[in-house]
Design brief:
The structure holds two protein chains of two kinds.
Chain A (H helix, E strand, L loop, with lengths): L5 H12 L4 H24 L2 H18 L9 H24 L3 H14 L7 H11 L3 H12 L4 H8 L3 H20 L2
Helix pairs in contact in A: 1-2, 2-3, 2-4, 3-4, 4-8, 5-6, 6-9, 7-9
Chain B lengths: L17 H63 L2 H10 L4 H7 L2 H7 L15 H15 L3
Helix pairs in contact in B: 1-5
The chains are: A mainly alpha, B mainly alpha.
Chain lengths: 185, 145
């Protein structure tokens, strides 16, 4: 699952649990998962620097709490859960801090989509991203995981702690809203 | 236009060598965070230890004081007087049994019972687990400062 085999995952965890190889093991964990987590966060917050900050926070939390990780659960699900929570907290903090409406916050991100040197893509691809920004954060999160990351509802369910039925409904509503937005000039 | 007609390719880019450099940058950040936290954590631990030591000392002093009080008022005085002298005094005195009982200081009698009861001693005043949990909580709070 997610490019790292179960065997590799166990090896990494074994190294982390051993104080003598803890740092090496943690470094391997970072190398193995940084890209997947980066893109997951980036799609939610759009800006590279914000993503970089959140990704560091995620791994710092992982470093501090790895002892609490239960080996019977999936490591990537656990990492994804931490990253998702950090993302949602960041988005909430940003809205609270600037006391801006979703519309105002989106204007800034729309402009980033159009002007950032770290964003390319065709006009329609950018329009899709803008459509996504009009969705509630959690709905956008579900859409990203299903549509872009091609994850199974079962796995999304574990990460978001939401039932598969609710996720399917949420995804269906998101697709409808996006297609309506795309039709607009 | 339908959603499936749009190219799914990732439109976001990262600066050159971002992923190559990330693990090292992260490592430095973790080291900095741990260095920064060391000082207040040590200080907090010392404060907890000192407070715990003070509480224990208070109990010890309280206990000793009680024991000393008891021995001064009853045991010590009695130990200095022989039983024979005591009996002679009571026989020769005009004091009736009722008067004798009245003259007794009831508070002294009460204090001769074990003054350090369980309720004065917390069952586990220095529970390491609780201290560690407090420290963990403190660390979590620290990172938001």
């Amino acid at each position: 699952m997610f490019g790292v085999t179960l065997h590799e995952e166990k090896e990494i965890l074994k190294r982390i649990k051993n104080p003598a190889s803890r740092e090496i093991g943690f470094n391997q964990l970072v190398v193995a998962y940084q890209q997947r987590l980066y893109w997951h966060i980036r799609k939610m917050v759009i800006d590279h620097n914000d993503t970089d900050d959140i990704l560091q926070e995620v791994f710092i939390k992982v470093w501090k709490n790895i002892e609490k990780f239960r080996e019977d659960s999936n490591l990537f699900t656990w990492l994804y859960k931490i990253a998702t929570n950090e993302c949602l907290n960041f988005l909430k903090r940003r809205k609270d801090k600037y006391k801006v409406s979703m519309e105002d916050a989106n204007k800034e991100l729309f402009s980033k989509l159009d002007n950032s040197p770290h964003i390319s893509g065709s006009a329609i691809q950018k329009k899709l991203q803008k459509a996504l920004l009009t969705l509630p954060d959690k709905q956008r999160l579900v859409f990203n995981m299903k549509y872009f990351e091609d994850m199974k509802y079962k796995d999304i369910s574990k990460i978001t702690e939401t039932s598969v039925g609710s996720l399917k409904a949420s995804y269906h509503i998101a697709v409808k809203k996006i297609e309506e937005y795309i039709k607009l000039d | 236009m339908k959603l499936e007609d749009i190219n799914k390719d990732n439109i976001f880019k990262v600066p050159d060598n971002y992923f190559e450099n990330f693990p090292e940058r992260l490592q430095k950040r973790i080291e900095e965070t741990e260095e920064r936290k060391k000082t207040p954590v040590i200080r907090l631990r010392s404060i907890i230890n000192m407070a715990a030591a003070a509480v224990i000392l208070m109990f010890v002093i309280y206990g000793i004081t009680q024991i000393n009080d008891n021995s001064t008022s009853v045991d010590q005085i009695l130990s200095e007087i022989s039983s024979e002298d005591l009996v002679n005094y009571l026989v020769e005195s005009d004091m009736s049994t009722d008067e004798f009982l009245e003259s007794l200081d009831m508070s002294v009698i009460a204090s001769t019972e074990d003054p350090i009861t369980d309720e004065f001693i917390p069952s586990d005043p220095l529970d390491e687990k609780i201290i560690d949990e407090l420290l963990d909580e403190y660390e979590i709070e620290m990172q938001y400062l």
